[in-house]
Amino acid sequence: MMQCSIEPRRRFFSTNTLRSRLRYTIGAGIAAILALFMCATAMAAPEVLAKNARIRLLPGELPLAGYFELTNQGKQPLTLLGAYSPAFKMIHMHLSQELNGKSTMITLEGIEMSPGQTLHFTPGGYHLMLMQHLQPLQVDDQVPITLKFSGNQSLEVMFKVQGAGMQ
Amino acid sequence: MSMNIKVRHRWLALVSAALLAGLAACQQQKPWALRDVSGIVAPLEFHLTNQDGQTVDAASYRDKTVLLYFGYTHCPDVCPTTLGTLALALHRLGPNADKVRVLFVSVDPARDTVPVLKQYVNAFGPQFVGLRGSDSELQELSRRYRIAYALEKPDRQGNYTVAHSNAVFIFDDKGNARLLGGSDDKADAIAQDLKRLISSG
User: Fold this and answer.
1) Which of A25, A36, A108, B75 measures 20 to 30 Å from B105, CA to CA?
2) Hey, of B74, B77, B90, which one would you mutate to test binding to chain A, going by the most A CBs within 10 A of its CB?
3) ipTM
4) Window A:30-89, CB contacts with B under 8 Å
């Protein structure tokens, strides 16, 4: 569990004048609000279980796909809203589907999960489309991706990088 | 009377022979795991550029069993999934995998340049060939194999996807179309049919 303490950082502020004292108070106030906000965000961990999280590595700058299984272990419905990662500039949530004899992808803004439901992000179906690597990736690397949920909740999941022929 | 019996026997023999022959034919024509398209799909024919920048045509792959697939490298899910399945099927063939070539024809030649294709097909194995052509060459090929593809509207960053048929056409080593696979076919089924096709050739 993340430690959340609010400590004014005195040494950054001069207390010689009333004016700087006021600035210090405002600064400390903002820091306190920020810290509280961060605590609130960090504590909102959803009751979900993510398994088998993996990325298929393709050469060069090509967009990649991320797959995983996600179970809503809570008693409330939950909506998966998307994902972000320090390793990619952009992540979209996609569903591949066959339409008029053509494979196509639709972008999803959210996927609802009822209590106990498992979502399968799997080749040829739901997937995260990972665009523009911000760092070079290699097979067996572990890449953090944060899944965003309704209710301002989020979960960081480690994805294992696998080769192009991954099944 | 005896003549009658002889004739009847001869008929019986003929009917049994026909039945036996029919049974043997049935056993030989055990169904393929994939769709049999012999005589329905056009023989292998194309003029394109490969991942080494060389002009190639169907004759370049004579004596190989050819798997023809249309896709694009910026496709994150379906194309690499299909190519991965084909790679696994080839792996199941052991040394016979060298008798097979997977021709990956790009439906997005604007982004799939020769170097991009080379990197891409190398990631799947030595039997994989990347092919690209001009728009007119690609259109001709898509008409020949009734392949549908359409560039989708680009997003604000200029990224776009391409909707495309996900068929895998399989040709024997003489360039005749034999089988048709799709994204739902498993590596084992594909390997089983490829083994049979290679041994019959």
Assistant:
1) A108
2) B77
3) 0.82
4) 56, 58-60, 62-65
Residues B98 and B174 in one domain: yes
- Give yes or no for a contact between B187 and B74, defined as CB atoms under 8 angstroms apart: no
User: Please, which residues 111-150 of chain B have a Cβ atom closer than 8 Å to chain A?
Assistant: 116, 119-120, 122-125, 148-150
Taking only the tens place, the pLDDT of each residue in B140-174 is: 999 999 999 999 999 888 889 999 999 999 999 99
Query: Do B42 and B124 share a domain, yes or no?
Result: yes
Rg of chain B over CA atoms, in angstroms? 22
Q: How far apart are CA B92 and CA B189, in angstroms?
A: 11
Full residue range of the structural domain in which residue B26 is found: 1-30
**CATH of region A48-162:** 2.60.40.1890
Query: What is the tally of structural domains in chain B?
Result: 2
Q: Tell me, yes or no, whether B7 and B49 share the same domain.
A: no
Q: What is the pLDDT of residues A71-94, one digit of tens each?
A: 999 999 999 999 999 999 999 999
